[in-house]
């Protein structure tokens, strides 16, 4: 990222960039002076530097300023579909393939080649449209979006313009408790089908190649540009949100919910690092109470939910500070890049008027026609979606924290549901999955589908503890063995002779043995050092190899220690 | 390079016809009963403005010498006029169509098929440097 900034300076020495470099070096100085209203603030100057303490101080001031403004946030999300082939040709697509191996005359845009739509793309679009509560267009069409960029072999992108396959709709979500909690509903304007462009790379002097995000005209003028067309023509669904979000966390949670939805639907792996889920965010602010919108700034290069959150909050602060200093005219319509390393947004490209994409209907593709029967059959085949799952878990009496954890990953939710259908207690099953099982998966870097413990055996384990057959402590021991090696709870209990000792006579005998072997401690106990009860209990438990029922043990032990026997 | 130039040219032709319609009601994709259209007079005067040719060339990323502009302008004008005739078609009783279309979907199963003659594909790339295709830097005028 640092090299990006550096290259930027090389190309546009006349713009603000040298200031950016200056402010990076002098971040600490700037922050100590920021309260001074007279200081001329360029948009680059209020970026919090990496130094910890001043950043905190800056945040305080910014919080105060941002309270007077309301942010309006909208998100465009591109979801790469997990079809086996591309949108308009039969080329296979696999992330990470050798460059320029999954190509053909169609996706290379060679003259005379004609596109034929992949039926799965329609199916996936309908699934997503239904999942987002959209109105589906039974008749829609493809259009050509013309622009010239080296990653676009045809000179146009096949997309949908005025009649997208789905419109309207909304996303329901619950904010995590650590961010204040609460339910939110954000509108989705439209969902449309389109094709991806190739991957543009530029290599500097070294032999490494770095991906260039779309339209980054600020990148080096001097380095080599190459393209990998494997991704050209891969199907995407673009989801445009209503400008309903107000904070970075709301936007990040919206994106996270979209990821859950596409994963539940099985239409995309939703992986942000691989670029299967890409979010471009639009942010504008306005003084609280004002009805018209402020100037919109677009942010790109957001590779994680937390970067969405932080980039937006940074951008809100930047714009609010400019407003508060009477420099709102410096908020211009532009595209800014989020720099993860520097934790700030920087100008990528200023927009001069709207781009003229000269859309027109794609003459090589027929109209997309959906029948109501088709839509209904897909509607009937939809899985239970994250929102429905959360509401169901909530009704079962689980806490919101449990609900969010369990419904976050479809496979975890399925595991939980199966454990319940094997008769397990709801809260206990949730606790085991969120506690020991989650910890094991994290340590071993496994997903829930990789563990050897079946939901049925988890239910059996919970039942065995609840019925008193084994102690909770033994239960945990069995669990680790089941997680790693599999097997059955009953088998392990028998094999290792782990059945809890709940016979008072047998426990009494063990207590007698321990007491008689420790006359000194008994004397101390009886002369007032009652804390030694713990010592005796530990000795008895040890003697029973952990199998004694702890409640019973303590009850009988107390009687014996205080009694005459 | 040959195919690239050809591509440009096809694009150019398209844009010449299309962009000149601008945001007008795009009559040419409403042609469903095209037989009817043929019946109309061939000499309807177009209400469409001829395009600004140098501007058009610029959007299509091709350079035209002044004498070429002179040469092409009347030809483009003719094409516009020809399309302009469609403006006169009475569509009052015609159901609006999204597309001029053939009946039925033309869809493909999601079954991978590798294109075999990859060598020819790569050989036709003007500038190739294993394993990448070398491309011009930025084509957008920004």
TrEMBL record, chain A:
Subcellular location: Mitochondrion; Plastid, Chloroplast
Source organism, top-level taxon: Eukaryota
Boundaries of every Asn/Gln amidotransferase domain copy: 414-561
InterPro entries: Asn/Gln-tRNA_amidoTrfase_suB/E, Asn/Gln-tRNA_Trfase_suB/E_cat, Asn/Gln_amidotransferase, Asn/Gln_tRNA_amidoTrase-B-like, GatB, GatB_C_1, GatB_Yqey_C_2, Gln-tRNA_amidoTrfase_suB_CS
EC number in record: 6.3.5.-
Subunit relationships: Heterotrimer of A, B and C subunits.
Major localization listed first in the record, in broad terms: mitochondrion
Pfam annotation, one family: GatB_Yqey
Keywords in alphabetical order: ATP-binding, Chloroplast, Ligase, Mitochondrion, Nucleotide-binding, Plastid, Protein biosynthesis
Protein name, entry field: Glutamyl-tRNA(Gln) amidotransferase subunit B, chloroplastic/mitochondrial
Presence of the UniProt keyword Plastid in the record: yes
Coiled-coil stretches noted in the UniProt entry, renumbered to this chain: none
Summary of the function given for this chain in its UniProt record: Allows the formation of correctly charged Asn-tRNA(Asn) or Gln-tRNA(Gln) through the transamidation of misacylated Asp-tRNA(Asn) or Glu-tRNA(Gln) in organisms which lack either or both of asparaginyl-tRNA or glutaminyl-tRNA synthetases. The reaction takes place in the presence of glutamine and ATP through an activated phospho-Asp-tRNA(Asn) or phospho-Glu-tRNA(Gln). Allows the formation of correctly charged Gln-tRNA(Gln) through the transamidation of misacylated Glu-tRNA(Gln) in chloroplasts and mitochondria. The reaction takes place in the presence of glutamine and ATP through an activated gamma-phospho-Glu-tRNA(Gln).
Catalysed transformations (reactions): L-aspartyl-tRNA(Asn) + L-glutamine + ATP + H2O = L-asparaginyl-tRNA(Asn) + L-glutamate + ADP + phosphate + 2 H(+); L-glutamyl-tRNA(Gln) + L-glutamine + ATP + H2O = L-glutaminyl-tRNA(Gln) + L-glutamate + ADP + phosphate + H(+)
SUPFAM superfamilies with a match to the protein in the record: GatB/YqeY motif, Glutamine synthetase/guanido kinase
Family note: Belongs to the GatB/GatE family. GatB subfamily.
The species this protein was found in: Gossypium arboreum
UniProtKB/TrEMBL annotation, chain B:
Record-linked InterPro entries: Asp/Glu-ADT_sf_sub_c, GatC
UniProt GO molecular function: ATP binding; glutaminyl-tRNA synthase (glutamine-hydrolyzing) activity; transferase activity
Chemical reaction(s) catalysed: L-glutamyl-tRNA(Gln) + L-glutamine + ATP + H2O = L-glutaminyl-tRNA(Gln) + L-glutamate + ADP + phosphate + H(+)
EC number: 6.3.5.-
Record key words, sorted: ATP-binding, Chloroplast, Ligase, Mitochondrion, Nucleotide-binding, Plastid, Protein biosynthesis, Transferase
Gene3D superfamilies documented for this protein: Glu-tRNAGln amidotransferase C subunit, N-terminal domain (1.10.20.60)
Subcellular location as annotated: Mitochondrion; Plastid, Chloroplast
One Pfam family per UniProt: GatC
Similarity comment: Belongs to the GatC family.
PANTHER family: GLUTAMYL-TRNA(GLN) AMIDOTRANSFERASE SUBUNIT C, MITOCHONDRIAL
Name of this chain's protein: Glutamyl-tRNA(Gln) amidotransferase subunit C, chloroplastic/mitochondrial
Origin species: Gossypium arboreum (Tree cotton)
């Amino acid at each position: 990222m640092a090299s990006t900034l550096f290259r930027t300076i090389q190309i546009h020495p006349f713009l603000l960039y040298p200031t950016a470099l200056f402010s990076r070096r002098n971040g600490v100085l700037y922050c100590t002076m920021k309260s001074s209203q007279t200081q001329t603030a360029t948009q680059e100057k209020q970026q919090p530097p990496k130094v910890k303490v001043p950043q905190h101080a800056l945040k305080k001031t910014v919080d105060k300023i941002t309270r007077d403004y309301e942010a309006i946030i909208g998100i465009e999300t591109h979801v790469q579909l997990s079809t086996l082939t591309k949108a308009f040709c039969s080329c296979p697509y696999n992330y990470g393939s050798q460059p320029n191996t999954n190509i053909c005359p169609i996706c290379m845009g060679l003259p005379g080649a004609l596109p034929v739509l992949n039926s799965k793309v329609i199916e996936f679009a309908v699934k997503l449209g239904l999942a987002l509560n959209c109105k589906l267009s039974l008749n829609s069409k493809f259009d050509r979006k013309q622009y010239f960029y080296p990653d676009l072999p045809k000179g146009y992108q096949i997309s949908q313009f005025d009649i997208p396959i789905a419109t309207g709709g909304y996303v329901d979500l619950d904010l995590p408790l650590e961010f204040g909690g609460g339910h939110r509903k954000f509108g989705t304007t439209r969902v449309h089908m389109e094709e991806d462009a190739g991957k543009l790379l530029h290599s500097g002097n070294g032999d490494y190649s770095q991906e260039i995000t779309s339209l980054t005209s600020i990148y080096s003028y001097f380095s080599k540009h190459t393209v990998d067309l494997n991704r050209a023509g891969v199907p995407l669904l673009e989801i445009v949100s209503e400008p309903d979000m107000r904070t970075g966390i709301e936007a990040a949670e919206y994106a996270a919910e979209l990821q859950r939805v596409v994963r539940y639907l099985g239409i995309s792996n939703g992986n942000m690092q691989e670029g299967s889920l890409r979010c471009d965010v639009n942010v504008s602010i306005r003084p609280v109470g004002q009805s018209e919108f402020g100037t919109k700034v677009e942010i790109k290069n957001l590779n994680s939910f937390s970067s969405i959150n932080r980039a937006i909050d940074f951008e809100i602060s930047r714009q609010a500070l400019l407003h508060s200093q009477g420099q709102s005219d410096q908020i211009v319509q532009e595209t800014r890049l989020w720099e993860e390393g520097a934790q700030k947004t920087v100008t990528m490209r200023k927009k001069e008027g709207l781009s003229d994409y000269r859309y027109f209907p794609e003459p090589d593709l027929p109209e997309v026609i959906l029948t109501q029967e088709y839509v209904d059959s897909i509607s009937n085949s939809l899985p239970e979606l994250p929102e429905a799952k959360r509401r169901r878990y909530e009704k079962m009496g689980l806490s919101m924290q449990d609900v969010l954890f369990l419904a976050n990953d479809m496979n975890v939710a399925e595991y939980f549901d199966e454990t319940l259908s094997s008769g397990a207690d709801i809260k206990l099953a949730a606790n085991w999955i969120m506690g020991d099982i989650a910890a094991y998966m994290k340590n071993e870097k496994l997903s829930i589908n990789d563990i050897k413990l079946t939901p049925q055996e988890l239910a059996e384990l919970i039942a065995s503890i609840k019925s008193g057959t084994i102690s909770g402590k033994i239960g945990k021991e069995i669990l680790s063995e089941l997680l790693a090696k599999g097997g059955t709870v009953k088998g392990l209990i028998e094999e290792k002779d782990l059945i809890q000792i709940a016979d008072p006579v047998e426990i009494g005998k063990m207590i007698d043995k321990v007491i008689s072997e420790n006359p000194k401690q008994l004397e101390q106990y009886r002369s007032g050092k009652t804390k030694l009860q713990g010592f005796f209990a530990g000795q008895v438990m040890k003697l029973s190899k952990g199998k004694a029922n702890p409640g019973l043990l303590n009850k009988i032990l107390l009687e014996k220690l205080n009694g005459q026997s | 390079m040959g195919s690239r130039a050809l591509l440009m040219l096809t694009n150019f032709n398209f844009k010449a016809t299309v962009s000149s319609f601008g945001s007008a009601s795009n009559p040419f994709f409403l042609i469903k009963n095209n037989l009817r259209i043929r019946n109309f007079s061939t000499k309807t005067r177009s209400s469409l403005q001829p395009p600004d040719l140098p501007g058009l060339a610029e959007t299509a990323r091709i350079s035209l010498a002044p004498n070429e502009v002179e040469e092409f302008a009347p030809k483009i004008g003719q094409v516009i006029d020809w399309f302009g005739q469609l403006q006169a078609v009475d569509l009052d009783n015609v159901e609006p169509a999204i597309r001029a279309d053939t009946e039925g979907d033309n869809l493909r199963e999601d079954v991978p098929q590798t294109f075999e003659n990859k060598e020819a594909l790569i050989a036709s790339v003007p500038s190739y440097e294993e394993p990448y295709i070398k491309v011009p830097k930025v084509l957008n005028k920004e």
